[in-house]
Fold:
Amino acid sequence: MSDIYSILAPYYDAWNAEIDYAAWADGAEEFFRRYAKGKVRDVLDLACGTGRMTVELAKRGYDMIGVDRSPEMLDAARAAAENAGEEVSSRILWLLQEMTSFELYGTVDAVLCCLDSVNHLTGTGDVARCFSLVHNYLNPDGLFLFDVNGKRKFESVYAEKTYTYDAPGAYCVWENRYRRGLCDFSITLFREEKKGIYRRYDGFERERLYSLRTLKRILEENGFEWLGAYSAPYAGEVSGDEERWYIAARAKKN
Structure:
């Protein structure tokens, strides 16, 4: 079995073309204006993937750090930054690290963690370790913005469904199995290595459903003030029935 995101890295952005990163960045900036005690300059994009959010914020003048566990995803992120030009790429530091054990060279004003990366931490201990590190590397009153998949996403979109994706030279089958708050993803990717000859890659990943109450408790136990949960990229109070929840917290330090 391979890491699911490593084998999907060349196709990830094409198969997720509907994601509006500019809208997410707009929402994050609105929260910076609303909740930051000072000017936000340095931002960590945790589990940055192919770096679409990292690059979008760098274009807007923020000094960015992109952290991800997958070398292949970071390669795609670096390429995207380079394509955006020297002024953008020079604002970004890329680090190959895990969410639960990352190390920075200093503190930042805000941390973002997008696209349900927190759901991939399948134990509350892992979530607590991640949140503790985020708190450690945030400046006093620094902001932590992240999103998670909600109950409706797990039960209606994931559930026991199978999805297929294709691209020039590649075909992917994505199968889901959902039981008691855990969803297992098994994927098979066929990639063309030579003309007419395909190689098979298999990958596995897992996500856990977390309640807002649990996330709030873990945040508060690790030094955060809960600012709220929202139904769109940091806009509109959450009802609890959305597919995705957007959460904002502030690091409190003595």
Remarks:
- The longest strand covers residues 182-194.
- Residues 153-208 form a domain with the N-terminal domain of TfIIb fold (CATH 2.20.25.110).
- The first helix runs from residue 4 to 8.
- Residues 51 and 80 are 7 Å apart (CA to CA).
